[in-house]
Amino acid sequence: MSNNLKRLTFATGALLLAVALFSVGYILLPLFSLIKQSFLPDGISSSLFSVRAYAEILRSTFFEAALNSIGISLCSVIGSAIAGIFFAYVFHNFDFPLKAIFSKLVLVPLALPPLVGVISFMFLIGESGMLTRGIAALLGIAPSHFALQGWWGIVAVHVYSFYVYFYLFTSSALNQLSESHGSVIDASLSLGASRAVTIRRIILPMLTPSFVGASLITFMASMASFSAPFLFGGTTRFLTLEIYTAKLNGNDANAAAFAVLLSMVSVGFLLLLRWYQSRKSYLRVTKGSSRRSTVPHSAAARFIAVAVALIVVGLFSLPVIAIIILSFVKEGSWTYQILPDTFTAQNFIKLFSDTHVFEPVTNSVEMAFVATAIVVFIGVCTSFLVVRNKFIGKRLLELLMNVPFGIPGTVIAVGLILSFNHPSFFSAQSILVGTFWILPLAYAVRNLPILFRSTASGLESVDPSLEEAAMTLGSTGWRIFKKITLPLLFSSIVSGALLVFINSLGEFVSSILLYSYNTRPISIEILSQLRLYNVGGAAAYCTLLMVLVMAAVGISSKISRATLAE
Amino acid sequence: MKFTLCIFLSFIFLSCNSSNKTPLVVYSPHGKDMLEEFEKRFEKVHPDVDVQWLDMGSQDAYDRIRTEKENPQADMWWGAPSTMFIRAEKESLLAAYTPAWADHIAPENRSAHNFWYGTFATPEVIAFNSHLLTSEEAPKDWNDLLDPKWKGKIILRYPLASGTLRIIFSSIIAQSVKNYGTDENGFQWLRRLDANTKAYTPDPTQMYLRLAREEAEVTLWDMPDIVFQAEVNHYPFGYNFPKSGTVSLTDGIAIVRGCKHEKLAEEFYEFVTSKESMILQARKFYRIPARNDIPRDSLPKWITSTHFTSMPIDWNLIAQHESEWMEKWDSEIKGKGSQ
């Protein structure tokens, strides 16, 4: 495949410069300040360079925590892959009543940012959760016997939150596949290949880039996940919790050393996947065909698959329902009862009588928009450059585009503060800390890998000979990109952008370090309610956030459809 | 495409709002309700000022002030346990200021060099679910907590992240150093407490909920919060002061070194710590004033009827060793007490 790569032209060179500036200024430098901190155990103002922090953590808890983190992340990848790919397959291949609604419901976990998800899980499957108490009452056993705790509790939360990556990546690849490549599937079937062979030899290989991308994102997200281990982990050690603990004790160097090693684990996984992918060759989209083709199944298989999918989708909606119920529960009224019994609209009345209620909402929407715009521009350019061109430093650029998702949000925020609380070349000589821009920037840096992965894997499955054909027919670079590449990639870009937008909308971990009064996001408002022990109020705000996310999902599918129609 | 662009541009326009008031930035864990109240009151007296409070835990506030050291964003830091202010003072994060009432506070509740002053006293208590236990049945002293009958019935806030629990744990070790000349007895005590502890919760809200929802019966927490939950939210909570004496934590206030509006910060400092404000904070927000010149008859009954013995504590010893002790607890004791 390397013989298809192009040398840089003037236009792509300019793009590369923009992308390189971004990744050096906003990814590499903050990372560098983190690495620097890990080698300065006596504080960043001292000049005593030492590996003491690494020696300390390697001697004490690092290996225990790393083993747990890696184990949990691998389990999360496997679980998410099973759920996500299954859903994508069922929704792509089968028709059933109310499919449109159910296909939206599959995306429901997106509506629960980690902060909200953790609360709803506690009220649902925690020891005194609605489900736990309900089942306990039915079976007559003590609820503590089957509350989802420890290792499996964390995996459950991760699979719930991350299977969407597999679902979205796989279904956009399946759409691309059947829209432009249905003839191959039909040919395979009509030449007598069995269904299994067709899936194994044709469909799966074509989906490989998507699986690799989703596995990487899920692995990194699990490694960097903080809320789930914190809530369900009990006293088990995990890398993110060790970073937090070291920071709480004012031991910045140890925290930074933990973070550096955590990032190295994520990078190691990335390199492993790249190596695996490079050993496989796979079929690519070669020519357009308007026929939508699917693999036929027997009626029984169809029925079972759809039934299982719908039941699981129903289960997956429970946390959202729990939050909505909670937002109507009277404060302090639900203690020993199985289900809450005193309801009130007071939480919403109080919420909307606050004159400032919509400020955090508009703030979050604005910041998420800016972040998504940055990510789409940088992400699409970079994936185009990396997949289609050859230049020096390509591997490094690709690495930088992937790393941020594997770094906990707090660490990125601290890196940005250390880099931009003084005038810098990369902030046009102004101070970014305390301004509007630093938040979208942090969101963009953290989420860039999502869009980069989804676009790059989309691009990898588009055959460059399509673009070359256009070129021989006399089209210029921009026109080819606009008329051929972009339309083929559009569903990958939109699904990636949607994830970025939603992640930014409810972002909490880095926001808490970066926000100012004029830029306070929704998540901070939810936390404020929780800090006042106002769970009902927090749930009401969460419901508002879920409505916004659903609106974003609706708008994105509208954009997707409108553009395809053009 | 055009559709997307339109939405995008309209949001950029929306974001351009400016005001010509002087902003005063306050980092505070005191909660939205109390902060909003004092924002309104202060802006009424100073109509040209825009009080911008950032509501966050005291640890988050400390983290931010530390990372923003080169270019401070906050003017005021209103609220954190005194041990945190002692650390901040050592790291040169605070600006000295002597409030008008400096003589009306005990010397251990203020910085010797005026870098911070105490605002509230928060005595720690043994709290329990009053739907399950009466005050008689609940543990009445520290050592009662070690009784095997409480095994699996104690729930605690994750101590490393909680000023309250850090102080309780550190005080127990400090007592051991004082009485036996070694920290070993203190750690032994904490090991036995860990053996009885069912879970450590990530945040106070979950500790409350799990206690109220009968997942556990007993916890350690501060008294004003427990009273607030019982009286305002009607949670089934009661409390006992440990008989042999309890720890009382001092919550403080300070001006951030190198802040942009130091004069204004000083005015805010005086405003929120005035007699009237302290009385309002006691009545409406369940805070016990640290100033000793507030007339007793103007304070609510839950404060004036409270009597407890204090544990004598060497605060400097704690400020000096707290991190090291908590690190040791985290790596050697957490989750291993029953082994």
What do you see in this structure?
The complex is a heterodimer of chains A (566) and B (339). By secondary structure, chain A is mainly α. Chain A has a single domain, classed as MetI-like (MetI-like fold, Orthogonal Bundle), CATH 1.10.3720. Chain A has helices at 10-38, 52-59, 62-93, 99-105, 114-125, 130-139, 150-190, 195-224, 227-232, 239-248, 252-279, 299-327, 346-353, 358-388, 394-402, 409-420, 438-460, 464-472, 477-505, 511-514, 522-531, 535-565. In chain A, helix 3 runs antiparallel to helix 8 (195-224), helix 14 runs antiparallel to helix 15 and helix 18 runs antiparallel to helix 19. Chain B folds into 2 domains: 16-120 and 250-297, Periplasmic binding protein-like II (D-Maltodextrin-Binding Protein, domain 2, 3-Layer(aba) Sandwich), CATH 3.40.190; 122-248 and 310-333, D-Maltodextrin-Binding Protein, domain 2. Chain B is built from 12 helices and 11 strands. Chain B has helices at 2-14, 32-45, 58-67, 82-90, 163-180, 184-196, 204-212, 223-232, 262-272, 275-285, 301-304, 315-333; strands spanning 22-28, 49-55, 76-81, 94-95, 117-129, 154-157, 197-201, 218-222, 237-240, 248-256, 288-289. In chain B, the strands form 2 sheets. In chain B, strands 1, 2, 3, 4, 5, 8, 9, 10 and 11 form a 9-stranded mixed β-sheet that branches. In chain B, strands 6-7 form a two-stranded parallel sheet. In chain B, strand 1, helix 2 (32-45) and strand 2 form a beta-alpha-beta unit. The radius of gyration of chain B is 22 Å and the shape is globular.
Average pLDDT figure of chain B: 89
Helix content of chain A: over 70%
Largest sheet of chain B: 9 strands, mixed
CATH level-4 homologous superfamily of chain A: MetI-like
Integer tally of domains of chain B: 2
Provide the low-confidence segments of chain A as ranges. 287-291
What is the first-to-last residue Cα distance of chain B? Answer: 63 Å
Q: Biggest interface: chains and residue counts?
A: A-B, 62 and 61 residues
Q: Tell me the span between the first and last alpha carbons of chain A.
A: 32 Å
How can the largest sheet of chain A be summarized?
Answer: none
Task: Please compute the radius of gyration of chain B using only Cα atoms.
Answer: 22 Å
What is the residue-averaged pLDDT of chain A?
82
Derived structural class of chain B: alpha/beta
Per DSSP E runs of 2 or more residues, the count of β-strands of chain A stands at 0
Structural class of chain A: mainly alpha
How many domains make up the 3D coordinates of chain A? 1
CATH architecture descriptor name of the largest domain in chain B: 3-Layer(aba) Sandwich
Q: What letter string, H or E per element, gives the SSE order of chain A? A: HHHHHHHHHHHHHHHHHHHHHH
Helix tally of chain B equals: 12
Count every beta strand of chain B, where a strand is a DSSP E run of 2 or more residues.
11
